């Protein structure tokens, strides 16, 4: 019921919103599949044993099963989450002590941090959000939401752009946490463009408490992403990029989304892409 109410509250027509989401799933999903299978194919081509991918495979499968069991995502969304996790986990060197290539360990730590932060934030004040028609469906996030929030991080990881990957993950956490905390806290939100008061959950609306929570969530993800990696000297830059993506999300929501041109999934994908590209540029 809450899901239907949210669709009807949007300015974008329901059919257009669903069409955009399906296109995102097909395009980004295909790219994620390519990113996930390319390293194993390369391993086979050069004659290396596939057993080196056992740990990444098992970890990714276990993570996807856990997400589904907790009803944090639907079955289709969990499969896409498995692909993204497997991409982040595929460096065989990352699973050996004192590895010179520990990017995957840090990326996985950042991914787990995103899941924990968003899971807790979604549960916060759930009854109040359900009463307002703002809560996420109890069966969990859909495939299009996973693609929109985590797809860019997976693609940047597959391409080897680590700063962009972590910035995208941090922006995704910041966006979800800021929205969920702001809606749970209640009180008026304000449009980023003109600072007019609007109801919580309005496209482009931000709250002070939600924004602070989102910025803190982004910082936590970036710190986890720098635990075992040379990203540490650039943590401030990556965090600022994630913050830029968060405000870019609100700007798109207050303009293009409120006009009914684009849906929330496309806004989220654009914002994570903005954060990733900004991090790459500044780094």
Primary descriptors:
283 residues; mainly alpha; 70% helix
Short characterization:
This protein is an all-alpha fold and 283 residues long.
Major sheet: arrangement of strands? 2-1-3
Low-confidence stretches: 1-8, 92-101
Q: Quick one: how many beta strands?
A: 3
What's the structural domain tally? Answer: 1
- Give the mean pLDDT: 86
Number of helices: 11
Which outline best applies?
A: globular
Radius of gyration: 18 Å
Reported for the largest beta sheet, the result is:
3 strands, antiparallel
The topology string of helices and strands comes to HHHHHHHHEEEHHH
Strand content is under 5%
Computed structural class: mainly alpha
Description of the molecule:
By secondary structure, the chain is mainly alpha-helical. The chain has one domain (2-134, 141-282). The protein has eleven helices and three strands, in the order H-H-H-H-H-H-H-H-E-E-E-H-H-H. It has a three-stranded antiparallel beta sheet. Strand 1 and strand 2 (197-198) form a beta hairpin. Helix 8 crosses helix 11 (264-282). The termini are far apart.
Secondary-structure blueprint of this entry?
Blueprint: H1 2-9, H2 14-45, H3 54-69, H4 75-89, H5 103-123, H6 126-131, H7 143-158, H8 162-185, E1 189-191, E2 197-198, E3 205-206, H9 208-225, H10 235-257, H11 264-282
Antiparallel strand pairs: 1-2, 1-3
Helix pairs in contact: 2-4, 2-7, 3-4, 4-7, 5-8, 5-9, 7-8, 7-11, 8-9, 8-10, 8-11, 9-10, 10-11
């Amino acid at each position: 019921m809450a899901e239907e109410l949210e669709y009807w509250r949007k300015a974008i027509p329901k059919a257009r919103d669903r069409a955009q989401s399906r296109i995102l799933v097909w395009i980004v999903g295909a790219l994620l599949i390519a990113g996930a299978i390319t390293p194993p194919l390369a391993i086979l081509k050069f004659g290396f044993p596939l057993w080196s991918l056992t740990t990444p495979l098992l970890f990714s499968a276990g993570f996807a099963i856990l997400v589904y069991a907790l009803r944090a995502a639907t079955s289709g969304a969990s499969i896409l989450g498995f692909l993204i996790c497997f991409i982040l986990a595929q460096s065989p060197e990352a699973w050996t002590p004192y590895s010179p290539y520990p990017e995957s360990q840090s990326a996985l730590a950042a991914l787990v941090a995103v899941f924990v932060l968003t899971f807790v934030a979604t549960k916060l004040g759930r009854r109040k959000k359900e009463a307002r028609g703002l809560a996420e469906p109890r069966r969990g996030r859909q495939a299009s939401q996973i693609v929109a929030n985590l797809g860019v991080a997976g693609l940047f990881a597959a391409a080897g752009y680590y700063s962009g990957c972590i910035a995208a993950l941090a922006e995704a956490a910041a966006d979800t946490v800021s929205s969920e905390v702001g809606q749970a806290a209640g009180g008026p939100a304000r449009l980023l463009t003109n600072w007019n008061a609007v109801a919580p959950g309005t496209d482009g609306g931000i709250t002070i408490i939600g924004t602070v929570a989102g910025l803190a969530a982004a910082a936590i993800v970036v710190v986890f992403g720098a635990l075992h990696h040379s990203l540490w000297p650039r943590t401030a830059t990556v965090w600022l990029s994630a913050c830029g993506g968060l405000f870019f999300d609100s700007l798109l929501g207050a303009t293009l989304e409120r006009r009914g041109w684009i849906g929330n999934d496309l806004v989220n994908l654009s914002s994570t892409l903005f954060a990733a590209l900004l991090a790459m540029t500044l780094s």
